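Trying the structure run again after the queue cleared.
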Amino acid sequence: MSDAGIVTPGVSTRLPYGRHCVGEDDIAAVVAVLRGDFLTTGPIVAAFESALAEVVNAPDAVVCSSGTAALHLAAMSVGLGPGDAAVVPAVTFLATANAVRLTGAEVLFADVDPDTGLMGADHMAAAIGNAGGRRVRAVFPVHFAGQPAPMDEIVALARAHDIVIVEDACHAFGSTWETRDGGEARIGQAEHGGLAAFSFHPVKTVAMGEGGALTGQDRALLERARGLRNHGMTRDSEAFTEHALAFDAGGAVNPWHYEMTVPGLNYRASDIHCALGLSQLGKLERFSDRRRRLVAAYDAQIATLAPLARPLARREGCVPAWHIYVALIDFAAVGTSRRRVMDALRAGGIGTQVHYIPVHRQPYYRRRYGEQSLPGAMAYFERCLSLPLFPAMEDGDVDRVVHALGQALGR
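Done. Tokens:
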């Protein structure tokens, strides 16, 4: 998923809704690569993949150029194609649905809980019921804002329908949830056998500049993704089928030979990006803890604006590594509009954003699938406003934001 802060010509947004936190150690890690022998795919890519897999408790990871690339690689790796369909919640960034369509498969948009923005098993079941004879092959649950979707219920339903799971975890690196048996699962562990996709965009908890990754338990799926990120090309001599081209008269491998087994893409990440990501991985817990403390402060302050404004509802048994802080605001009850509130906050040097316009309302998808009634998604969208959240914020920044929001709401 990509995110962008609001930028208005001539206006300095002193407190953006999100900001990367890069230190001198991060800079030194990147400079070391620039002074080394590899800029593109070198040893730091492998080191980052190994460290990432360890963090999420998975056996392997495949790093790529963006969260969008990760989602597309996942969709291709699980075999989506024409004639297939995949369930995607309507409240997400464009990339989740587009990854499905880029394989030729169709999107079945699911509704969400209006107070969390999360798709539940009931929403997923309703979307499956709208398949219209299409083969439902996958579901893409989104861990929105950093809060995990109800995975136990989603996994059970997916298994009942023989559906593969691709978690859109682009908001949730570092989040955990409690399983039904009382254990703790890390987002990205993907014990369900599918894949999890991450983003390391600058406003995410860990930044690579641009970057993404896939993790999971199925090494075959991850190896498929690893090949697809590099044009579908292999240099593994055991996989060669064009023997006359691949081997010389004595049976030795021709060192220049490569083969393309399936069409792929250039979704590689560079050593430069992975150096930054590897350095930032060591700060995951610190960044996540700081975000949680800021969210707790927001929750306490936003409570003073009830019932006009309140936080997203919380799911029990989760420890989110919060990506964004969403306030749900009853603009109609206040007698104002979201635009006026955003303008007022911007005038005070406070950046905000809207995450997201429900994807089923985008022109492309409206033309393709017609009008769809997803009342939970629309009820969420009509009230949502993302407030500044990033680790470098001071405690007083939360007071400042909520005070300005209260003034904009007439409180």
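The radius of gyration is 22 Å. Worth checking whether this holds up in the mutant runs.
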